[in-house]
Structures are given as structure tokens and as C-alpha cells.
């Protein structure tokens, strides 16, 4: 007998796909379009919908997992022998077209040099994407029905009464933030600050009127070096920052927490959503909460990846 809770939850399942086409959007971004017989069943419910790519070392299809259904997917993946177990990496659905069974994913080509050779720290996902050709197989893991909330891999859920939406991130958050911005309906003030590797990575977005997007080109600077002051400036312009003189010791921000999405964030009418490299995001969140007086329950922050850490 199924319970009410079960009927509310998605079932994660594997989707057999192939690369339909690739498009180099910019020096740093590659768009992969996947197609597959079941892709019309993929349950994309939110604008920052995440899912997994399963990347085998040898490029062969991961057929063993395709017969696994429901909650057993993780155990089945873990049970695969070392060497055969594909790498699992998290990405964002940039666009889903169920009517033609297609999904777009924008992949950051980190560690891939301009001449196409790989740096020593390039990861399997970026390497696979850089070499992807139409017809290449890829198995995806995602929900089997649309929904909202963490269970479905969706974190974008601003309070309905927010009068200001503020988004910031590095290039790995660009697909999620772009999808969020493109779907917004008129109402709140919206500002997004995006730090990407170079000017050529400033992507053309189909934005609703009034959405203010500020691109920053990192160049040779440290990650976040431009983003942090730009976030400060934007929040001051919006009248959100209350200019706490010096650090406010009464508003501690825990070390080590890299993912926190509050239920509501209604105190100031501003909802802030930060994603990207974990250390950078932690610093940004600290700046917002401790130095600028933004209420902590109005700030969602997500460490999408961590320098020096794989997967
Ligand atoms: C919810 C969510 C959504 C995401 N959506 C996207 C997306 O749509 N597009 C996207 O490109 N990424 C996205 N990411 C980030 C992506 O999962 C990571 O960048 C991932 O580590 C890439 O895997 P890899 O196999 O290429 O490298 P890994 O094997 O994981 O890492 C190899 C080395 O590269 C470093 N590294 C990893 N990513 C980067 C990077 N971007 N720049 C510089 N160094 C890096 C690591 O620190 C490590 O030293 C998302 C992550 C999350 C959690």
C-alpha cells in the first residue's frame, strides 16, 4: 500500500540518451543537447533543476544501470566494480523540450586549454564534454516527474512576497541563474551578478524586461575577487545593505556549511541566492549576513564545487 508521502516524492531513474548536437557558446561554455527515447518523461520541475551525468572512463554506455528502477539507483551505482563504475557529476537542466525529447546542458570547460588539450586537473565531465560528438551515448539520472523542492533537485523557491531577488555566482551557476532569470514574471526587482572567466563568456540571455544582469570577467584574478565587491555595490544600490560598521560578531556564520536553502526569507523583502565554488560562496554569504546585515534566513547558498576536490 502506498503512503501519501510516497506519492508526493519523485522516483529517480536513469535515462538512456545520446548527444544530438554540441554548440560552443563561448570560450568557456559548451552546450550539449541530449536526446533519448524516454526523455519526454524527465521530470524537470524547477529552473535550477539539477541532475547527474554518468561518465564512464572508457566512454562505453553504462547499460548495467538502465534496468535499475526507483530508490535502488544509488546502491546499484555503488555496487559496480571499481573501474567500471562511472563518475557521477551534477549539472543543471538549461532547457528541456519534452515534445522533441531533448535536453540542453551548458558545461563549463574547466581545465581545457584553448588549443583543446587538457590541463592535469581537468575532470572527467569537462573532458568528456569537450570531446563529445553527435551520437555519443550518455546515461543521465533524474526525477521521473516534475516537482519542486530538494527532493526533486530544485532549490530555487523564493518567498512569494519577496520584493527583490538577488542572484550571484560563478560560471557553474550561470546555467541555473540564466534559466531562473529567463522564467521570471514581472514583479520584484531583480539583479544578478555573474563572474565568468572572460568577456567572451558573457552569454546572451532572453531576459524579461527590467532584469539587471551584471557580468564580470575574472581574467587572471582570483575567483570571487571581482564578485564580492560587485555584490556589495549592488546590494548598496538596492538599499539592502545596512552598512554594519565592521564585522558583526553577533551574527556568526558557521564554517563548513556549504549548502543551505532557507524555507522563507521575508524579513527585508529581499531574497538572495548564491551558488558556485564553495569557498567563494561561503565568503559571499558571510559578507551578506555578517557585514551587510542581510538576514540569514533570506540567503540561500550552495557550494556547487570545491577547489581541489573531485565530484
Ligand atoms: C546543483 C549543481 C548544479 C551544477 N550545474 C552545473 C552546470 O550546469 N554546468 C557546469 O559546468 N557545472 C555545474 N555544476 C558544477 C559541476 O558539477 C562541477 O564543476 C564538477 O566538479 C565538474 O566535474 P568534472 O568531472 O569536470 O571535474 P571534477 O573531477 O569534479 O574536478 C576535477 C578538478 O577540477 C576542479 N573543478 C571542478 N569544477 C571546476 C570548475 N567549474 N572550474 C574550475 N575548476 C573546477 C576541481 O576542484 C578538481 O580539482 C553544478 C554543480 C551542482 C552541485
CATH architecture of the largest domain: 3-Layer(aba) Sandwich
- How far the N terminus sits from the C terminus, by CA atoms, comes to 37 Å
Number of domains: 2
User: Low-confidence parts, pLDDT < 50 over ≥5 residues?
Assistant: 1-6, 247-253
Strand content: 25-35%
Supply the helix-strand structural class: alpha/beta
Number of helices: 6
CATH class of the largest domain: Alpha Beta
Give the helix/strand layout.
Elements: H1 4-8, E1 12-24, E2 29-35, E3 50-55, H2 73-79, E4 87-92, E5 95-97, E6 102-108, H3 124-131, E7 137-143, E8 164-169, H4 174-183, E9 189-196, E10 211-217, H5 227-237, E11 259-260, E12 270-277, H6 278-291, E13 299-305
Parallel strand pairs: 8-9, 8-12, 9-10, 12-13
Antiparallel strand pairs: 1-2, 1-7, 2-6, 3-4, 3-7, 5-6, 11-13
Helix pairs in contact: 5-6
The structure holds flavin-adenine dinucleotide.
Can you describe what's shown?
The chain has 2 domains: 140 residues, Translation factors (Elongation Factor Tu (Ef-tu), domain 3, Beta Barrel), CATH 2.40.30; 151 residues, Nucleotide-binding domain of ferredoxin-NADP reductase (FNR) module (Rossmann fold). The longest helix has 14 residues. The protein is an alpha/beta fold. It has a 7-stranded antiparallel beta sheet. A 6-stranded mixed beta sheet has the order 10-9-8-12-13-11, with helices on both faces. The chain is built from 6 helices and 13 strands. The chain is globular. Helices cover 18% and strands 28% of the residues. The chain binds flavin-adenine dinucleotide. Flavin-adenine dinucleotide (FAD) binds next to β4, β6, α3 and β13.
Amino acid at each position: 500500500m502506498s503512503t501519501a508521502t510516497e506519492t508526493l516524492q519523485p522516483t529517480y531513474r536513469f535515462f538512456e540518451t545520446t548527444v544530438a548536437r554540441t554548440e560552443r557558446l563561448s570560450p568557456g561554455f559548451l552546450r550539449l543537447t541530449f536526446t533519448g527515447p524516454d526523455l519526454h518523461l524527465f521530470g524537470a520541475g524547477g529552473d535550477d533543476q539539477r541532475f547527474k551525468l554518468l561518465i564512464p572512463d572508457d566512454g562505453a554506455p553504462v547499460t548495467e544501470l538502465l534496468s535499475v528502477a526507483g530508490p535502488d539507483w544509488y546502491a546499484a551505482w555503488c555496487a559496480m566494480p571499481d573501474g567500471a563504475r562511472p563518475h557521477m557529476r551534477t549539472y543543471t537542466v538549461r532547457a528541456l523540450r519534452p515534445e522533441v525529447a531533448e535536453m540542453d546542458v551548458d558545461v563549463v570547460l574547466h581545465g581545457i586549454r584553448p588549443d583543446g588539450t587538457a590541463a592535469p586537473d581537468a575532470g572527467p565531465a569537462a573532458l568528456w564534454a569537450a570531446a563529445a560528438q553527435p551520437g555519443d551515448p550518455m546515461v543521465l539520472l533524474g526525477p521521473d516527474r516534475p516537482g519542486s523542492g530538494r527532493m526533486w533537485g530544485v532549490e530555487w523557491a523564493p518567498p512569494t512576497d519577496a520584493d527583490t531577488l538577488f542572484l550571484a555566482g560563478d560560471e557553474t551557476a550561470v546555467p541555473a541563474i540564466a534559466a531562473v532569470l529567463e522564467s521570471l514574471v514581472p514583479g520584484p526587482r531583480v539583479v544578478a551578478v555573474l563572474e565568468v572567466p572572460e568577456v567572451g563568456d558573457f552569454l546572451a540571455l532572453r531576459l524579461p524586461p527590467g532584469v539587471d544582469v551584471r557580468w564580470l570577467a575574472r581574467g587572471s584574478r582570483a575567483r570571487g575577487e571581482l564578485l564580492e565587491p560587485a555584490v556589495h555595490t549592488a546590494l548598496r544600490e538596492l538599499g539592502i545593505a545596512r552598512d554594519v560598521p565592521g564585522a558583526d560578531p553577533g551574527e556568526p556564520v558557521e564554517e563548513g556549511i556549504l549548502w543551505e536553502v532557507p524555507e522563507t526569507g521575508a524579513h527585508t523583502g529581499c531574497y538572495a541566492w548564491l551558488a558556485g565554488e564553495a569557498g567563494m560562496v561561503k565568503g559571499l554569504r558571510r559578507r551578506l549576513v555578517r557585514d551587510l546585515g542581510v538576514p540569514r534566513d533570506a540567503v540561500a547558498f550552495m557550494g556547487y564545487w570545491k577547489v581541489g576536490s573531485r565530484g
